[in-house]
């Protein structure tokens, strides 16, 4: 899965968006109270360390079973130390990729698509963790019905 680094986020003044306290059911409809509880700034919600956070655009399908799709924007925090089972952006021999980092029992990168092999991390490769994926931003395509999820 290839990734394209879009650049570092810069702190700016942002307009908070209305935030409705009522949760929207994904099952049966329910009456909504329909009032705004407060405002929310998406930067405050999605970004913990603005000076160490980057956006990366996904290009590829190796992580689709983990909910990471082509053209998704990944919010990547470089200040976090990658841990076992984190989804990370890393460079392998100079090429960026997105995978799950598994440290036990052997360090490896795991794809979430049966068509892709695991990548064992060894001393022979040039491997560097770029950052930990902390959020995914996805545009929902309109008018595609049930096929939306698989329309890459």
Unreliable stretches covering 5 or more consecutive residues: none
Provide the CATH superfamily. Umud Fragment, subunit A
Compute the number of structural domains.
Answer: 1
Terminal CA distance reads 13 Å
Helix content: under 10%
Overall number of strands:
10
Structural class: mainly beta
Q: How big is the Rg?
A: 18 Å
CATH top level assignment = Mainly Beta
How much of the polypeptide forms β-strand, as a percent range? 35-45%
- Write the element-wise H/E pattern from the N-terminal end onward: EEEHEEEEEEE
Biggest sheet strand order reads: 1-4-5-10-6-7-8-9
What's the total helix number? 1
Description:
By secondary structure, this protein is mainly β. The chain has one domain (2-9, 16-150): Umud Fragment, subunit A. The chain is built from one helix and ten strands. The strands form two sheets. The chain has an eight-stranded antiparallel sheet, with no helix packed on it. It has a two-stranded antiparallel ribbon with strand order 2-3. The chain is globular.
Features:
single chain, mainly beta
Q: How are the SSEs ordered, and which strands pair?
A:
Blueprint: E1 2-8, E2 17-20, E3 36-40, H1 42-46, E4 53-59, E5 73-77, E6 87-92, E7 95-102, E8 108-110, E9 119-120, E10 127-137
Antiparallel strand pairs: 1-4, 2-3, 4-5, 5-10, 6-7, 6-10, 7-8, 8-9
Would you summarize the structure shown here?
The protein is mainly beta. The chain has one helix spanning 42-46, and strands at 2-8, 17-20, 36-40, 53-59, 73-77, 87-92, 95-102, 108-110, 119-120, 127-137.
């Amino acid at each position: 899965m290839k990734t394209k680094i879009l650049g570092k986020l810069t702190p700016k003044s942002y307009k908070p968006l209305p935030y409705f306290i009522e949760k929207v059911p994904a099952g049966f409809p329910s009456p909504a109270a329909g009032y705004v509880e407060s405002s929310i700034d998406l930067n405050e919600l999605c970004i913990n360390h603005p000076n160490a956070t980057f956006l990366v655009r996904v290009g590829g399908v190796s992580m689709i079973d983990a909910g990471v799709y082509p053209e998704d924007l990944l919010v990547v925090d470089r200040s976090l130390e990658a841990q076992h089972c984190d989804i990370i952006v890393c460079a392998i021999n100079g090429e960026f990729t997105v995978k799950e980092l598994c440290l036990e029992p052997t360090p490896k990168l795991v794809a979430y698509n049966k068509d892709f092999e695991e990548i064992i991390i060894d001393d022979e490769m040039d491997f560097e963790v770029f950052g930990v994926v902390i959020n995914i931003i996805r545009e929902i395509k309109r008018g595609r019905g049930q096929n939306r999820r698989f329309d890459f």
